[in-house]
Amino acid sequence: MPAVLASQTITWYHYSKEKGRYKILYRPDKYIETSEHGLVIIAVTEADAGRYDCWMGASLLCSYNVTVDAHRCSPPSKSNDYQKIYSDWCHEFEKYKSAMKTWERKQAQCVSRQNNSNQNSHPNEIYRPLYN
């Protein structure tokens, strides 16, 4: 988590057909929070389908639609299957981290440009240097 965002509160919500919108409460048998404030859902069932929103403070950070097909989606039975799924998940997570670092770099550039500009606080004001 970038330092600038570390103080922000991260909250996950699930929108399901049965329950409507509710806040995710972390518990080791169902919902685990990652070190980067991601969400891992354990023992997924069709009831876990729906939209998941991640809020940072009062701003929507990301949203995911999750579809669960219990007939086609069974838990892996071999350790190789688990390793492949874990590898795929890690690859997706690395893409997310890379996108976050790109955003953070661009955000820093914007802040730097604002701090280095000679513009006054109002765009219609005229900058006049003082001469002795």
Explain the overall architecture.
- The chain is an alpha+beta fold and 132 residues long.
- The radius of gyration is 22 Å and the shape is globular.
- The protein has one helix and six strands.
- The chain has one helix spanning 79-116, and strands spanning 10-16, 20-23, 31-33, 39-41, 50-56, 59-66.
- The N and C termini lie far apart (50 Å).
- A hairpin with a 5-residue loop joins strand 3 (31-33) and strand 4.
- The strands form two sheets. It has a four-stranded antiparallel β-sheet with strand order 2-1-5-6, with no helix packed on it.
- This is Ig-like domain-containing protein.
- Residues 111-123 have a biased composition (Polar residues).
- InterPro entries: Ig-like_dom_sf, Ig-like_fold.
- Residues 111-132 are annotated as: Disordered.
Structural class: alpha+beta
How much of the sequence lies in strands comes to: 15-25%
- Low-confidence spans: none
> C-alpha Rg, in Å?
22 Å
Mean pLDDT equals: 80
- Oligomer state equals single chain
Total strand count, please? 6
* Terminus-to-terminus distance: 50 Å
What is the global morphology?
globular
Arrangement of strands in the largest sheet:
2-1-5-6
Main beta sheet: strand number and arrangement? 4 strands, antiparallel
InterPro entries: Ig-like_dom_sf (IPR036179), Ig-like_fold (IPR013783)
Protein name: Ig-like domain-containing protein
